[in-house]
TrEMBL record:
Residues 5-235 form the ABC transporter domain. The keyword Cell membrane applies. SMART domains: AAA. Keywords: ATP-binding, Cell inner membrane, Cell membrane, Ion transport, Iron, Iron transport, Membrane, Nucleotide-binding, Translocase, Transport. This is ABC transporter ATP-binding protein.
Amino acid sequence: MPTLLSLKNVCCSYDEQPVVQDFGFSMQPGEICSLLGPSGCGKTTVLRAIAGFESISAGEIALCGEPLSTPSSVKPPEQRQIGMVFQDYALFPHLTVRQNIGFGIIKHPQRQQRITRLLEMTNMAAFEHRYPHELSGGQQQRVALARAMATEPKLLLLDEPFSNLDTDLRRRLSFEVRQILKDQGVSAILVTHDQEEAFAFADQIGVMQQGKLLQWNTPYHIYHEPATQFVASFIGQGHFLPGQVQGKHLSTELGLINNPTPNRWPEGSPIEVLLRPDDIIIDTASTIRADIINKTFMGAITQYTLRLKTGSIIESVLSSHHDYSHSEEIGIRIDAQHVVVFPAPSH
């Protein structure tokens, strides 16, 4: 399958200060991808460079094999066949829903039919004569999506499009938008700092830190096989426990764990083991004890924050049918199916 978009060794700078460094990935037609990272890591800069709003100081950005940006040449945004949905939607306040959607396709031979199809696709047909100020945030987001799709772009860019919505609406709308994109075979890149949103929305995720791409992979592999300690700690909840290599096992204060890579480090090497809440089982018969220092009821499950006798902090999730008390001492054990291990940092 031919590559849709490729970035090779891309660098971006502001006032000679590097913002994005040696950045690269590729995506296939029909894929939905996400750039994920904390605020200020450079993800929006990458998105704007792909759109043509930012120049690059090194590398190349290409769409369907055709260069869009190099340090010496930049194809204008309007010639890139790339659509963009902004964080603030950027709808025209003086235009109706129908007029907003059709703004970029005035010369399209089947303009009205296409607008009607997009209205139906986004469930906005009943609101076509309303103005943006008469719409809810979720409705405005649907209009912004329809307008971006009206020009039939080869690639759609989404810059934190759900961040202004409340949690329930954000989750529901991101699911709806993903379904629309998949049904239409539209390729897209979502920028977000919300890992749950990225996991639910994207086929491939790129985790960024300080302008660098640390890992590009599926949500499953990002979660279970993080490439760095930053990725491991940023993705999902979890805590690192110190340990030591003992042949085919890893020795920790919670007991022995199977060593997933027994030939990776020498015997006795200090390591850190990432334990996520689903790795810790509450077991009343266990001799390993922990104190509950916090609990969060989440409906079907309750998440417990635990302090071990050494002072180390870990977390566990349990069906909310069980209800342990704050400050209660409980027994725990490890049930880790995907052990994530890193060498202990040198001091």
